[in-house]
Each structure stands twice: as C-alpha cells, then as structure tokens.
C-alpha cells in the first residue's frame, strides 16, 4: 500500500524517469538493429567473418556493464554526455542476439527455395531482400525481443553514471537502504521488460505464419 502511495505521490517524477528509460532503450535498440542486422547478413555471405564478429559480440557481453560505462567515460566526445555512453554501451550489449538470430534465420532458409529463386533468374540482392530476409524475419524479431528485454534490464545500471532512467530510484534506494525506493525502480523496469517481451513475441507469432 505504501508503494502505491509512493507511485501516486511521485507520478510526475516516475513518468519522467520512465520516459528517460524508454529513450535509452529505444535509441540503443535502434542503433543495435541498424548495426546488427547488416553484420548478421555479412557473415552469411563471408563465412570467414563468422568467428570474429560473433566472438567480439560475445566478449562484449561478458564485460560488466559498470566497467564498460567507466571505460567509455574516457572517450572524449562520449564522455561529455552520460546518455551517449549509456546508449552506446546498451547498443553493444544488444548486438549478439540480433547478429546471431539474423545469421541463424538466413542460413535456416530452405535451400530448395533459394535455388528455385536462382533458377528464376533472381540476383543475390533480390534473393536476400525478396526471399531470405522475409523468411528469416520471425527469427530476427526473436533476436530483437531477447535484446530488448536484456537492454531494459541493463539500462537501470545507466543511472550510476547519471544517464537517468528508472535505475535512479534503485540506486537512491540502495544508498538510503530503502526497499520502497528500490522496488519503485525495479517494478516499473520489470513491467517494461514484460511488456516488450509480450509485444515482440506477439509480432513474431503473427509474422511466422505469413513467412511460412
């Protein structure tokens, strides 16, 4: 009941922090998709890039988020704005599932369909955009879903460098040893993650029958 009262009494601040959180997640996912999907496509065309690209993305995910934030603070242009550091870090963390699922989706397309397209005179570019990517889209969306849920969670740590978001309540609560403040940040963040997971899962399921 006290938590409900806290939400009601601080609804303006809660709304602001939620919007900041959504902004961080939205921008980082945009950059991750713009970079991750082409990289996933690239390693289906040039298999020698497979291990370096996936290996680098895997290594990035093993770096503790606070350590990555701290490392990027030393970068001149990025270090001037905490939100820039947060967006870049979150985008890097989101790359692996997007790259991997793009690769898996495209390589999982039935080769008989691809060969049929080639037999009809389609170029590699036409095969990619008219056959392979549409068929791989549900798998790619599944990777985006995993990356988005991961990013919503990691974005709470961005408050440690002053980037804002719902993590502000969590870190404030830890400093004050106040469970109510911790929950005030953790519950909305968990709700956002669940909402993103449900929405993207629904989109994936709607695309799958069409792609099939």
Features of this protein?
single chain; 212 residues; mainly alpha
Question: What topology emerges from the helices and strands here?
Answer:
Layout: H1 2-9, H2 11-45, H3 50-62, H4 65-72, H5 76-79, H6 82-107, H7 111-119, H8 124-154, H9 167-176, H10 179-211
Helix pairs in contact: 1-10, 2-6, 2-8, 3-6, 6-8, 7-8, 8-10, 9-10
Could you characterize the architecture of this molecule?
The protein has 212 residues and is mainly alpha-helical. The protein is 83% helix and 0% strand. The chain has helices at residues 2-9, 11-45, 50-62, 65-72, 76-79, 82-107, 111-119, 124-154, 167-176, 179-211. The longest helix has 35 residues, at 11-45. It starts with a helix and ends with a helix. The relative contact order is 0.15.
* N-to-C order of helices and strands: HHHHHHHHHH
**Which structural class do you get from the secondary structure elements?**
mainly alpha
Number of strands: 0
Mean pLDDT: 91
Summarize the entry for a quick read.
By secondary structure, this protein is an all-alpha fold. The protein has helices spanning 2-9, 11-45, 50-62, 65-72, 76-79, 82-107, 111-119, 124-154, 167-176, 179-211. The mean pLDDT is 91.
């Amino acid at each position: 009941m006290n938590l409900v009262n806290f939400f009601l009494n601080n609804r303006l601040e809660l709304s602001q922090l939620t919007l900041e959180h959504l902004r961080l997640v939205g921008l980082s996912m945009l950059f991750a998709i713009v970079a991750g999907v082409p990289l996933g496509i690239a390693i289906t065309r040039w298999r020698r890039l497979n291990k370096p690209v996936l290996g680098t993305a895997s290594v990035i995910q093993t770096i503790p988020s606070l350590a990555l934030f701290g490392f990027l603070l030393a970068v001149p242009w990025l270090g001037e704005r905490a939100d820039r550091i947060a967006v870049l870090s979150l985008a890097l963390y989101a790359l692996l599932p997007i790259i991997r699922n793009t690769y898996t989706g495209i390589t999982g397309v039935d080769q008989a369909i691809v060969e049929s397209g080639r037999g009809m005179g389609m170029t590699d570019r036409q095969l990619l955009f008219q056959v392979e990517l549409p068929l791989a889209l549900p798998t790619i969306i599944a990777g985006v879903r995993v990356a988005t849920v991961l990013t919503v969670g990691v974005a709470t740590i961005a408050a440690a460098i002053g980037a804002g978001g719902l993590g502000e309540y969590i870190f404030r609560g830890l400093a004050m040893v106040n469970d109510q403040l911790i929950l005030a940040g953790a519950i909305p963040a968990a709700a956002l993650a669940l909402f993103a997971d449900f929405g993207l899962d629904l989109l994936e399921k709607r695309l799958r029958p069409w792609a099939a």
